[in-house]
């Protein structure tokens, strides 16, 4: 099969395609590409199916369990992890950090839909992974219009092999995708398939005026991302709304190193300030909720983690730019929680203020917010000073 434009009106025989069309994840103009470039052709012989709700990974081998392998290959709602720990992991047990995967098909269909792509656009994809996304783009646009960048050499080589086997010939390079790929610029669309905490100015420079950048963006407050669609302006800046919550593996050089917080709490509680709170753990927001994401926007240079054991919940907060920390403890049956805070910032107080502001504003959803990125650069780690948040109302956090 060679790179080809979509063909209209074909019968939908692939169950995966039918499911994606039925639930609205896929727009009809992508159906031919998804049938011609099957998901299963880009999967490894073994992978770990990740259950998003349970937060657990299940090892699946095509040799050992061919039926289970096929079920997961045809499922729309499972990300399939294909590499752990940057390729250093071996064995069947999950590794420490998942570092390459095939995203949920419904997520892939959704961001291709939201990127508003049509021939003969020129597209840069950051994060080749298995190569499936690149293959879908190549079938739709022709290989000469698709440029895909992957940081891992082994992953890059495997993706090239799969693409070639299907007669698809995009440009696939092994490089740091956060910097884009200037040789193929300018691009009508830039699609980033890894979670980012900063959008590098290079992606703005390589985009055409009026082009779109689609990326999973978030703060280090939480591991979640929000899909943002940025429109590139004449001045080289880009801005646009958050569309919905997602969660992607992070770009390798933008991951949060949790080992850095080992020196924050010398002793607990030590001389920390002690107070109480009527907020509950649920007030902080569950994963993939507007409450948690907006808190991350309003409380810069901060991360947090929830720990639960025997009904006792402890939520810890760590400063990214200093040694400030806070801890909120909640006991079963107690009406108030106990808060400990230490360092130049009172992180819990900042979180409470952010949540009060969000509540006072009527608890606006994610799509009430957006992001602006300028070509002046970013600071790292943590909250970048280059991008500025805007809220589509006169007031903001």
Topology:
Layout: H1 15-22, H2 31-36, E1 46-51, E2 56-61, H3 66-74, E3 80-84, E4 98-102, H4 105-114, E5 123-126, H5 132-141, E6 146-150, H6 153-165, E7 171-174, E8 187-192, H7 201-205, E9 207-217, E10 225-232, E11 238-246, E12 273-277, H8 290-298, E13 302-309, E14 312-319, E15 325-330, E16 337-342, H9 347-360, E17 369-373, E18 388-391
Parallel strand pairs: 5-6, 5-8, 6-7, 8-9
Antiparallel strand pairs: 1-2, 1-3, 3-4, 9-10, 10-11, 11-17, 12-16, 13-14, 14-15, 15-16, 17-18
Helix pairs in contact: 8-9
Structure characteristics:
single chain; 397 residues; alpha+beta; nine-stranded mixed β-sheet; five-stranded antiparallel β-sheet; 9 helices; 21% helix; 28% strand; globular
């Amino acid at each position: 099969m060679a790179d080809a434009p979509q063909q209209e009106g074909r019968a939908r025989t692939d169950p995966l395609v039918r499911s994606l069309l039925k639930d609205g994840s896929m727009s009809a103009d992508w159906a031919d590409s998804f049938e011609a470039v099957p998901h299963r052709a880009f999967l490894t012989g073994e992978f770990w199916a990740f259950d998003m709700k349970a937060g657990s990974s299940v090892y699946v081998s095509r040799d050992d369990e061919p039926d289970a392998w096929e079920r997961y290959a045809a499922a729309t709602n499972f990300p399939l992890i294909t590499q752990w720990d940057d390729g250093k992991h071996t064995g069947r047990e999950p590794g420490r950090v998942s570092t390459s995967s095939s995203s949920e098909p419904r997520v892939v269909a959704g961001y291709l839909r939201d990127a508003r792509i049509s021939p003969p656009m020129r597209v840069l994809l950051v994060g080749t992974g298995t190569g499936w996304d690149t293959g879908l783009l190549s079938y739709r646009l022709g290989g000469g219009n698709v440029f895909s960048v992957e940081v891992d050499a082994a992953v890059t080589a495997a993706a090239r092999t799969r693409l070639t086997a299907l007669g698809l010939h995009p440009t696939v390079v092994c490089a740091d995708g956060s910097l884009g790929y200037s040789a193929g610029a300018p691009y009508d669309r830039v699609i980033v398939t890894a979670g980012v905490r900063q959008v590098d100015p290079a992606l703005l420079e390589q985009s055409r005026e009026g082009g779109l950048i689609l990326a999973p963006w978030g703060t280090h407050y939480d591991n979640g991302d929000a899909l943002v669609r940025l429109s590139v302006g004449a001045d080289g800046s880009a801005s646009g709304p958050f569309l919905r919550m997602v969660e992607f593996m992070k770009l390798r050089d933008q991951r949060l190193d949790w080992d850095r917080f080992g020196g924050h709490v010398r002793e607990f509680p030590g001389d920390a300030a002690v107070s109480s709170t009527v907020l509950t753990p649920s007030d902080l927001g569950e994963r993939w909720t507007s409450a948690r994401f907006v808190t991350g926007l309003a409380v810069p240079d901060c991360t947090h983690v929830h720990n639960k054991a025997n009904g006792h919940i402890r939520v810890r907060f760590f400063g990214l730019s200093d040694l400030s920390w806070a801890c909120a403890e909640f006991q079963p049956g107690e009406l108030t929680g106990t808060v400990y805070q230490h360092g130049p910032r009172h992180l819990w107080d900042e979180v409470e203020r952010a949540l009060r502001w969000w509540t006072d504003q009527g608890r606006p959803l994610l799509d009430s917010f957006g992001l602006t990125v300028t070509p002046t650069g970013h600071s790292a780690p943590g909250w970048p000073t280059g991008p500025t948040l805007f809220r589509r109302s006169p007031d903001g956090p």
